[in-house]
Specification:
The protein is an alpha/beta fold. It has 13 helices and twelve strands. The chain is flat, with a radius of gyration of 29 Å.
Length: 429
Amino acid sequence: MDTIFALSSGAPPSGVAVFRISGAAAFGVSEALCGSEIKPRVASLRKLNAAGGELIDTAIVIGFKAPSSFTGEDVVELHVHGSRAVVAQLTSELTGRIGCRPAKRGEFAERAFINGKMDLTEAEGLADLIDAETREQKRLAQEQSEGSVRRQLERWKEELLEMRAFLEAGIDFADEEDIGDAVDADVSVRVQHLLEEMKDALAGSSSRSIIRDGALVVLVGAPNSGKSSLLNALVGEDRAIVSNVAGTTRDYVEVRLDLGGYLVRLVDTAGLRSTNDEIERAGISKTEELIQRADIVVELSPDGVFSVGDLEDAAVVRVHSKSDLRGQGSFGDLSVSVRDSGSLNHLDAILTDQIKFLAGGGAQVSLNERQASLLVRCTRILDGYNPEELVEARADLLQRAMRVIGEVVGDTHIDDVLGAVFSRFCIGK
């Protein structure tokens, strides 16, 4: 297997650039650059020289011998100055070494998985951690990268294995009717209990996907109700056009922001009204679609007229907008003016509480789309458990459920699945 390398830190220029080298030739290649032996797990200051003797840079060099490294292979890290010239020359020098090549996206993590340093769920958690934009996304990703999903799945897998062993042991006592009946009844109860646990995990994990994917918060209302101004105020910059001309917003504008540690996808929409303008009608149609997809709908009205009723799949917050205008009473769930920071903070708090409620499904684990789809498949298999069937058929059913759980953690290596998971990583990870 080739020795791979990559710049694992950010793009230059930077204060420090970290090159990671992994594979059988990692120490040999690095020692050739340093001109002397590298002691494992000892950080040392070395001069790195090109093959022709030219000084590349002075670096901190740290080596890790297999299997005690991130990838499970020999790994060396070169911490150099983060100038473009140094990074370019060191990249060229490493590329020219025999058996050493630039790493592909996610190749370090993939080798860690192949060498048993992490399972597939932990690798996915690591990818989520790298992509995390908010505190709650980071927390959820850290839980998974540290094995929260793996531990739950291992417990379920052990439960299935134990039940299968009981059934097969019952075959040996087929002549003892009392023993066989007791085993059948016990396993049937345990299958139903396990099935309920899995379905509860799926339901709870679905709610927590709001943390991973972001809560869709849609601003709606009649034209000139203050939607665009509110979006700009919440984001802290002008992202939507504000005008006194009705119907200015004809398409929706979506921005991402961190609200109380949660990712919010905040959307400004076309104003709801009857119109003969074909383009505006298309925008209103998109608004109606977004209302159906939303996690939270914030309806704005400066005059107390609200048109969005209660929704089955979304919370509705009714806002008295432009509340700084004189002669207006108070109505709706709260009054907001973009000129009043206190009212904006109040709206922030209400939205954060709503998102916490939506994300607080009580799940012991948080599953991504791939993991959840496989667990659904597992529940469908277990739904087919029939205590009236032959014991051999029931034991085989439990074995099939175990295999599906194995797919979640990566016990069964499927190349296209691995490709999809590790292609999410950046170069150098």
